[in-house]
UniProtKB/TrEMBL annotation:
NCBIfam families: PRK00870.1. It comes from the Bacteria. Keywords: Hydrolase. It holds the Pfam family Abhydrolase_1. Gene3D superfamilies: alpha/beta hydrolase. This is Alpha/beta fold hydrolase. GO terms for molecular function: hydrolase activity. Residues 56-192 form the AB hydrolase-1 domain. SUPFAM superfamilies: alpha/beta-Hydrolases.
Length: 325
């Protein structure tokens, strides 16, 4: 797929991805669409046996499929076909230059387009950070294509009052017209909207338990050779639902209702060092029927980006879930 991107869409030059440490994977692309926009090119990794059971690995903000570089080989060696896409605006995928072109619904549509175009079936969804809200919503739209879920440091913000006192980082309604928000979350959102430049490496360095080498931090910045390429990074944070009236919260509530009917295996694999998502593992365990009786995991010594701190361990959890459930 070598055609030029549509007007108003940026495409990171291939040379930006040359020589990235531990990322010697062949690129693959599929054309995806979302309402109101021209088709764009979505990048994904496709590793392991073509006829193996499928693990769909979803990243969040501000990472890309590079996040899973130590997870992919372990799963592929176990006979699993690994599909790891870059959301539109991230990694090797196309990047609309106008921030408001990115919406929650469009991210869902773009990922659904990949799943349908590749005709993925019997999928084990592995979702971290924004990979959860987007991936769970695709699961809700295409339930027959999914067989299992591994939720890893992810969320599904609904801003519902029943989340009160459940989450370390509070996001929930109060009474008829008030909301309770974690101060750190608000600070984070405001910083990302006001900062003149966003570098993914700054967030990776701050939210991992281990110290990442400079070349690894640089790899996370590689898809964004200038600030013009970062509209998707900035806008995804602005899409975070903070009130019950937010369109993202309405999508989240609809998706949660679908998860409350999900009786296939649903396993949580959260780290012990991520206050931003702490509490969601227990919410999912209680509300998703498929989570009952499962062997849920707490990964010790890892931060928000547990793939960096404990990638092979997370991979072994996924492989176990796929072979024993």
């Amino acid at each position: 797929m070598t055609s030029e991107p549509p007007a108003g869409v940026l495409r990171t030059p291939d040379e930006c991805f040359a020589g990235l440490p531990a990322y010697a994977f062949d690129p693959h692309y599929v054309s995806v669409t979302a309402p109101g926009l021209d088709p764009v090119r979505m990048h994904y990794l496709d590793e392991g046996p073509a006829d193996g059971p499928v693990a769909l690995l979803l990243h969040g903000q501000p990472t890309w499929s590079y996040l899973y570089r130590s997870v992919v080989p372990v799963l592929a060696a176990a006979g699993i076909r690994v599909i790891a896409p870059d959301h539109i605006g991230y990694g090797r995928s196309d990047k609309p230059a106008v921030a408001t072109d990115y919406t929650f619904a469009r991210h869902i549509a773009w990922l659904q387009g990949l799943v349908v175009s590749l005709d993925l079936r019997d999928v084990t969804l592995v979702a971290q950070d924004w990979g959860g809200p987007i991936g769970f919503s695709v699961l809700a739209a295409e339930p027959s294509r999914f067989a299992r879920v591994v939720a890893a440091n992810t969320i599904l913000h609904t801003a519902s009052p029943d989340l009160a006192d459940r989450l370390t980082w509070a996001v929930h309604g109060l009474g008829e017209s008030r909301v309770v928000l974690e101060e750190g979350l608000v600070d984070y959102l405001l910083h990302t909207q006001r900062a003149p430049e966003l570098r993914p490496s700054d967030f990776l360095a701050a939210a991992t338990a281990s110290t990442l080498p400079p070349e690894v931090l640089a790899a996370y910045d590689a898809p964004y050779p200038s600030p013009a390429y970062t509209a998707g990074l900035r806008q995804m944070i602005a899409l975070l639902p903070l009130t019950r009236n937010d369109v993202g919260a309405r999508i989240g509530r609809r998706t949660m209702r679908a998860l409350e009917e999900w009786d296939r295996p649903f396993v949580t694999a959260y780290s012990d060092g991520d206050p931003a998502t702490r509490g969601w593992e227990s919410v999912f365990q209680e509300r998703v029927p498929g989570a009952r009786g499962q062997e849920h995991v707490t990964i010790a010594g890892a931060g928000h980006f547990l793939q960096e701190d404990a990638g092979p361990e997370l991979a072994r959890v996924v492989a176990r879930v796929m072979t024993t459930t």
